[in-house]
From TrEMBL:
It comes from the Bacteria. It comes from Thermocatellispora tengchongensis. SUPFAM superfamilies: ARM repeat. This is HEAT repeat protein. Pfam families: HEAT_2 (PF13646). InterPro entries: ARM-like (IPR011989), ARM-type_fold (IPR016024).
Length: 180
């Protein structure tokens, strides 16, 4: 793979140029931006979150989901931006990315947003909620969050239900379906 330039603008351009949301060039750029972990990168990610296109907003969310990981300097500043997007965004894939970011951040402050989005009509958003919930339930696990995860374990979409059941097993060790 060709080397990607080191400025924030070069890295963002490289990520936006990759049409695949899971593309190697895109995630290499995001990884390099995470390693920068500086104010310039955070500011650019926040700007992207307000972008005109869903592609820009998804990139901004994905960067914040990496910059805001526990122990990194922007953990406390990423969450309010992501919670705002969770409450105001309509694009399904942006919401999905927000939920994946919440899962990466592992911050129980995301729980109300995740619970709200778990009832979304689109299965991709519910899948993101099923991914995020086990990571944001807190310790001890929040009862409303557990109830939401149990509900997702009965989701009509098989992928959502499977991921939620895995989440329940990870959180509680409960593999018994009789209480659902």
């Amino acid at each position: 793979m060709a080397s990607i330039g080191g400025t924030v603008r070069d890295l963002v351009t490289a990520a936006l140029t990759d049409p695949d949301p899971d593309g190697a060039a895109r995630w290499q750029a995001i990884t390099l931006l995470q390693k920068r972990a500086d104010h310039e990168t955070f500011t650019e990610a926040r700007r992207l979150c307000a972008g005109a296109t869903s592609h820009e907003r998804i990139l901004g969310v994905d960067i914040l989901g990496q910059l805001g990981r526990p122990g990194l300097p922007f953990a406390h500043r990423s969450m309010p931006v992501l919670r705002y997007i969770a409450a105001s965004e309509h694009d399904v894939m942006v919401l999905y990315s927000v939920l994946i970011a919440f899962g990466h951040l592992k911050d129980p402050k995301a729980l109300p947003s995740v619970i709200d989005l778990a009832a979304h009509p689109d299965s991709r958003v519910r899948y993101g909620a099923a991914y995020a919930l086990p990571n944001v339930l807190g310790d001890p696990p929040d009862e409303e969050g557990l109830a939401t995860l149990r509900k997702l374990a009965d989701d009509p979409d098989e992928d959502v239900a499977d991921w939620a059941r895995l989440g329940m097993a990870l959180v509680t060790g409960d593999l018994d379906d009789s209480d659902r």
